[in-house]
Amino acid sequence: MPTLVSHPDEVKVISRRFGQGAADIEKYIELDGYKAVQKAIAEGPEKMPAWIIDTMKASGLRGRGGAGFPTGLKWSFVPKQSEKPKYVLVNGDESEPGTCKDHVIFLEDPHAVIEGTMIAGLAIGSKMGFIYLRGEYRYLLKIMEKAVADAYAKGFLGKNIFGSGLDFDVVTQSGAGAYEVGEESALMESLEGKRGVPRIKPPFPAVVGLYGGPTVINNAETIASAPHILLMGGEAYAKIGSERNGGTRLFGISGHVERPGVYELPMGYNLKKAIYDVAGGIKDGKKLKAVVPGGSSCPVLLPEEIDVGLDFDQMGKAGTMLGSGGIVVLDETVSIVEFALRTIAFYQHESCGWCIPCREGTDWIKKTLTRVYNGGGSKKDVANVQYLAENMMGRTFCPLGDAAAMPTLGFVKKFRKEFEDYIEGNKAGTPIITVQQLVGAGH
Amino acid sequence: MSEIANSIFTPATAARFDHLVTIYPVKRSALVPMLLYAQDEVGYVSDAVVTEIAQRLDLLELDVRNVLSYYSMLRTKPAGRYNVQVCTNISCMLRGGYEILDHCKHKLGIGHKEVTADGTFSLEEVECIGACCWAPAIQVNYDFHDNLTTVKVDEILETYRAGQGKDVK
Prior knowledge:
The complex is a heterodimer. By secondary structure, chain A is of the alpha/beta class. Chain A has three domains: 25-240, 3-Layer(aba) Sandwich (Rossmann fold); 248-331, Ubiquitin-like (UB roll); 336-440, NADH-ubiquinone oxidoreductase 51kDa subunit, iron-sulphur binding domain (de novo design (two linked rop proteins)), CATH 1.20.1440. Helix content of chain A is 43%, strand content 11%. In chain A, helix 2 packs across helix 9 (220-232), helix 3 packs parallel to helix 10 (234-240) and helix 15 packs antiparallel against helix 16. Chain B is an alpha+beta fold. Chain B folds into two domains: 11-68; 82-161, Glutaredoxin, CATH 3.40.30.10. Chain B has helices spanning 11-20, 31-42, 47-56, 61-68, 90-94, 97-108, 150-161, and strands at 82-87, 114-115, 121-126, 138-140, 143-145. Chain B has a five-stranded mixed sheet with strand order 2-3-1-4-5, covered by helices on one side. Classes of the chains: A alpha/beta, B alpha+beta. At the A-B interface, helix 7, strand 3, strand 5, strand 8 and helix 13 of A face helix 2, helix 5, helix 6 and strand 3 of B.
């Protein structure tokens, strides 16, 4: 079970109810639960959708799954009139290595996810929402199922919600193990009972989504933020964060730090402070070697590059991404050659094979880095890995190809000398994985 | 009574499946969770499971197998009663995930995707399970165990061997 952590620099918005037993519906209600959806309904049927969307726009909330698309804008793209039913789809297929924030939300505040789903539904005129959790999160699915059943028992879900004359149903769904399904169109395929391969875009989900109907897909953290935003007001939420990056987000700090954990920090919070103050610095007093700042798909940062604000724009300027907020910290003992290999081995394993640049690219990069790791590499291999990664970028239906190429490019560009020295026989860092493990097991 | 005559599932599961197909706009949406829940009961997705699920969802068996082969948690061969899944992805790797994996291999005397002779345990190296901040972590069936050491792993395995481990389904 996750250990909850706390730090004075945290601003608790999404995590406000964590540790207080809010999975219990009575406790959730006591802690202002289901007030946001009632506040929206009080605006009246005519004004309500626009009021919700305007509030979300004013909040500056950007998608917490990693793409950082403004949530209010996304909701506004859904056509008002539609022959087909509209849907809300909550992405809880949290699978990006280094990311475990939604895990804590489902555990500690499941009703916030339900209430957020209802709010999104009211905003776009949908009558049905799906909350999709990765298959491994069975105990969390149970918690969500109970929360949904309790909300139905209270009459909060179903027909005529809160006297609005509007109906809204919520269905929880389990995946069965697939990183790729975290991509929005693959997620819809999976929910339709198919292999989780991505769809070609356009059309975008807001126009043609689940079952061919207009669909809003949001990350679980994005959805769970909506009730808080409606209650505190969009502007107040925006003010907590940095420019064009409203509010707070959950950052999961893992790897070589003294106090790993999921912390809620304002957008724009300094990455160096997050590592050294909030997470207690590098474990066992060792030196920092590198930071993967937003899940394994984000290009690596060097120690001299981490004095940067944690928001979508500042991280972009720094040549990397805010991603999913999973900050992975590497100390001086890590071999970057090994870390790069482990990273690409993951993407090779998860590539669905639909697009050739991703399927072949991840495989060849893995093969080449395995050869380098085993001591049989040639100088050409580093250039080859870079060439392969560059040719995957932007050439696939979904971002998995990019997600594999970007960190690879970061490693070989920023640690080129370490790769070259490794090939020469001067191996930096302490190896963790044995060759046999890499060849034998899941890879 | 289940809607399917001679269902291979327990009455409770059969009833659950009868209900599951009614909650979606399209019946087929029940396929992925149904395969997983069937596996929970039968131990793996057997030919009989495929046949009945295809029948329940008005699909070809081929359609079911096509989906089945995509998802990494679904298996077509029995695992141990307790499937020990060790995460070795980056956050766990940095905090001893491979050490835990090696320890389990040694302790159980089996490798990746193998089952102990008595059928009690199976072992699997898995990708990120979403417990990065509490690494290293494993799942035994659906139960998470985190902040692990090899000593803790021994205790956990013993608990399951004694039939006293939690088993969420």
